[in-house]
Amino acid sequence: MNKQNTICAIATAAGGALGIIRVSGPEAISIADSIFTPVGSDKRKLQERQPYTLTFGRITDGSGNIIDEVLISIFRAPHSYTGEDSVEISCHGSSYILQQVMQLLMKSGCTPAAPGEYTQRAFLNGKMDLSQAEAVADLIASHSEASHRIAMNQMRGAFSRELAALRSQLLHLTSLMELELDFSDHEELEFADRSELLNVADKIRQTVSSLVGSFRVGNAIKNGVPVAIVGETNAGKSTLLNQLVGEERAIVSDIHGTTRDTIEDTITIGTATFRFIDTAGIRDTTDTIESIGIERTMQKISQAEIVLLLIDSTQASQQYALLAPKVLPLCKGKSMIIAYNKADIVGDTKQPHVADLTSSEYADLSSVDEILISAKTGQGIDALRHLLCTLAAVDSDSSNGVIVSNLRHLSALNTALADIERVLDGLASGLPSDLISQDLRSCLYALGEITGGEIQTDEVLGNIFSHFCVGK
C-alpha cells in the first residue's frame, strides 16, 4: 500500500444530525482547499491558516452548486492523529451530502481509506505502538465500564510500559551473556553471577506469567463471562434466559426436549458483561438430534466460567441425584450456582438444600452457592444477578491494572514465557552462554511482536488493521 497517498473516509455512523469526513495525507489541506470556500471577511485559504483552527464555509461542486455549509478543522504533521497533515470536515449527516463530499474529494485526488488505515498510519508514523493501536479498536467496541477501562488503560500505554520494562531487563541479561561470549577465550572471566541472573530471569518469568494469567479476566471482560445454564428438560432454563436478557430469546414450551441446541445472548449487569448459554436439557434419550444437543451441553459446561445448575424445586432430590454425577466432573475450577426454580409453586419456603455444600464432591470447584428463584415471575432474579456479578469479580477497580484481553498478545506472551523458562532451566543446569543467549533473544522477539517492533510485513499489519472500522 502506498503510504504517501491522501486518504478520505466518513468517520461517523449513518443517520445522525452531523457527519464527519476525515482526510489525511500530504495533500489533505490542498485538496480540501480545492472544494471549499470560506465564508466571512477572512478569505484566506486553509493552507494559510494556523493548525487547530476551525473555518466556516461552503463546499461546492465543479459547477458552483453548494453541497453544504461546513466547518473544517486543520491539523498539521506531525501533530495529528495519523502524524500527517489532516483535515476533518463537519457537515450535515445526510447520506447524500456525505457521499457528494466524498466524491468531490476523490475527484480531487483522494483515495478511499481502507479499514483501520488511519490508525495504521498512526502506528507507522510512530504516534503509537501496535498494542496501543489495537486498543483503539477495543475502545470503539467497548460495551461496559470494565472493557472501556481496559482499552483506555492500554491505549494510554500502561501495557506498553510494562513490556518496555521487561524488555529492558531482558536486554541487560542478553548483553551480559553476549559479553561473555565475546571473551570466551578467557574462561576465568564471568560478567554476571549466575545466581543473580537466575533471580532476574525468575522475576521476568513471574511478570510474564501474571500477564498470561490475566487473560482469563480480560477475555471475560471483553467478550463476556460465559455462563452455562444447565438442567433437566422443562426445568425452566429457557424461561430463565428470557428473564435474564429481558426478551423472548428462547422458545418456551411444556414439551420436553424443546431446546436441542445452545442459544447464546450477551448482556451487561453492573460493570460486568455476561454471555449466557441456554443448553439442551440433560436426560436419557434415543432421539439422535436431542442427543447431539446434550453433547453440546457438556461441551459448553467445559467452556463456561460459571455453571448455573437449574433444579426444579418440585422434584429437587430426583433431579439433583440425576444431574450432579454428570455435571460436577466437568466443573473443576469453575463457580457453580445451584438455582432452585419454581419458587412460585413451592412458595416462599426455605430453599430445598438438596446439595450438601460441604461435601467433598465440590472440592474441585472454585465456589458453590444456592439460591431460590422463579424464572416465571422474576422472584429472586435480582439476587441472582447480584450473585453473578460477585462471582465474575469484575468490580470497579479490577481493570485498573495491566490486563491482557487480546489473543495475539496472549500467544506472544505464551511464547515469551516458554522462552524465559528455558533460560531458567539453562542457567540452573549450567548450559553454555550461547544457548541461553539464543532463548533470551527469542523472548525479546516475542515481546517485541506485541508492540510491533518485530513485525515487518505488510501482510501481518494488514490482517490486524482489517478488523477496524472504516474511518478509524
How would you describe the shape?
flat
Q: Separation of termini?
A: 17 Å
What are the low-pLDDT stretches, counting only 5+ consecutive residues below 50? 249-261, 283-287, 395-399
Instruction: Provide the succession of SSEs.
Output: EEHEEEEHEHHHHHHEHEEHEHEHEHHHH
Counting helices, strands and paired strands, the structural category is alpha/beta
Notable traits:
472 residues; alpha/beta; six-stranded mixed beta sheet; 16 helices; 17% strand
Question: Could you describe the 3D structure shown?
Answer:
With 472 residues, the protein is of the alpha/beta class. The chain has helices at 28-35, 95-107, 117-124, 130-141, 145-155, 158-182, 194-213, 215-223, 237-245, 288-303, 316-327, 343-346, 381-392, 407-429, 433-451, 458-465; strands spanning 7-10, 18-24, 36-38, 54-60, 66-75, 86-92, 111-112, 225-231, 263-269, 272-278, 306-312, 335-341, 367-372. Strands 3-4-5-6-2-1-7 form a 7-stranded mixed β-sheet, covered by helices on one side. It has a 6-stranded mixed β-sheet with strand order 9-10-8-11-12-13, sandwiched between helices. It is flat and about 85 Å long.
List strands and helices in order, with pairings.
Blueprint: E1 7-10, E2 18-24, H1 28-35, E3 36-38, E4 54-60, E5 66-75, E6 86-92, H2 95-107, E7 111-112, H3 117-124, H4 130-141, H5 145-155, H6 158-182, H7 194-213, H8 215-223, E8 225-231, H9 237-245, E9 263-269, E10 272-278, H10 288-303, E11 306-312, H11 316-327, E12 335-341, H12 343-346, E13 367-372, H13 381-392, H14 407-429, H15 433-451, H16 458-465
Parallel strand pairs: 1-7, 8-10, 8-11, 11-12, 12-13
Antiparallel strand pairs: 1-2, 2-6, 3-4, 4-5, 5-6, 9-10
Helix pairs in contact: 4-5, 6-7, 6-15, 7-14, 14-15
